[in-house]
Amino acid sequence: MRNVLILCDAFPPAFAPRMGYLCKYLHEFGWTSTIITEYLPKNVYTNLEGQDVTYINFYRSKNKIIQQLKYAFVFLADFLFDYKSLIIKRKAEKIIQQKNIDILLSSSYRTFPAFAVYQLKHRHKIPVVMDLRDIIEQYPNNEYISKKLFRSEKINRLVSKILTVKLLRQRNKILKNVNAVTTVSEWHVKILSAYHQNINLIYNGFAPELFYPQIVKNKRFIITYTGRIESQEIKNPALLFEAAEKLSAEKKIDIKNFRLQFYLMDEKSKAIIYTFAKKHNVTDFVDIFDAVQNTEIPKILNSSSVLLLLANQSTGEKSPKGIMGTKLFEYLAIEKPILCVRNDEDCLEKTINSANAGLAASAVEEVEEFILEKFAEWQKNSYTHQPVNQEFVQQFSRKRQAGLFAELFEILG
């Protein structure tokens, strides 16, 4: 067995399916993994048994005020001298001294911990793969910054601009000095190709042992969404709520049997959905739940009639770009009709059409027609099913993608 040392910004039980499932399957391809990551408090995944994981808690404190002060300190220290990368690099040095590491892999949401891996490469002469799940350019309004440090929006915007310049310069410097890059969509490949010649497209995907179709009859017609909503600019549910309001007012659906269900990861997401539901007078058939463990999601999806994918048009200069999250591929594997609002007119629409998986909608009328069609199917059978292109969908298996990573490791190591 050969060894890969993975430095990533998140790992299960936090929401980190890409690296979590990679490590789960890698041993089947002749690789063992050691992981160093930041500790994150939100546990939506079960721990992966048998994984060698070191968690670093940068903000440990039971006191909320002290925790906020630590966040501000770490933010500033990280901006000035890459504090978090320094800490994670020290942990990695000890492991490299103990084990024969063949490959270094960083997986980043922004840049951390890629800089630490870049430094380790130069010191130990170990090949590096840089995995970029998300990049700054895909966000329309700096949504990659999850927290606001200041009450003044003007100061927050200034800090965001300064941070963006710093992160992009650092990332692009690292990109030019790694052995290979992996990323998640054709759009990401296009953008990153300006900084590195060896860009490998490895999509996000689904775990085949969890996500597969089952026929589950239900007494209600349910449209389901799971996940989070970063902002309305990235995920805009307006067309769905407009259609639901109109169908309800015209009595084309029986609202006693019709539900819009949202399993949401944070309060911001809940507030967005509640605001739309109230605005369009559909709160009577909208259910908002907390996020659930990943092992519970397949049952929820299989019990649904339509699976909702939230997006937005990507053609504008300040529109979201290239976002193909895990949710899309898990939906595909369940073989239920997918309703994407709003149509991104790019990679999501292309994938949904190629998979014969449902509709990427650009108009309210399209949403109404789609819902009525699936509602009629549910009335007839008590369930719905989407005859997807199974050969196309199977390419997104997490196990297959672990094999692609392993092939890349073999070439470099």
- Report how far the terminal alpha carbons are from each other: 12 Å
Main beta sheet, described?
7 strands, parallel
Going across the major beta sheet, what is the strand order?
Answer: 3-2-1-4-5-6-7
Number of distinct beta strands: 13
**CATH topology of the largest domain, which one?**
Rossmann fold
CATH-defined superfamily of the largest domain:
Glycogen Phosphorylase B
Helix content: 40-55%
Domain count: the total is 2
Radius of gyration: 22 Å
The overall pLDDT, averaged over residues, is 93
What does the model show?
The chain has helices spanning 17-26, 64-81, 83-98, 114-124, 153-175, 186-192, 238-249, 267-279, 297-302, 326-334, 347-354, 364-381, 390-393, 398-412, and strands at 2-8, 31-38, 52-56, 103-108, 128-132, 180-183, 199-201, 221-227, 258-264, 286-290, 306-310, 338-341, 358-361. It folds into two domains: 2-205 and 397-412, 3-Layer(aba) Sandwich (Rossmann fold); 221-395, 3-Layer(aba) Sandwich (Rossmann fold), CATH 3.40.50.2000. The strands form two sheets. Strands 3-2-1-4-5-6-7 form a seven-stranded parallel beta sheet, sandwiched between helices. The chain has a six-stranded parallel beta sheet with strand order 10-9-8-11-12-13, with helices on both faces. Helix content is 41%, strand content 17%. The longest helix has 23 residues, at 153-175. With 413 residues, it is an alpha/beta fold. Helix 2 packs across helix 3 (83-98) and helix 3 (83-98) crosses helix 4. The radius of gyration is 22 Å and the shape is globular.
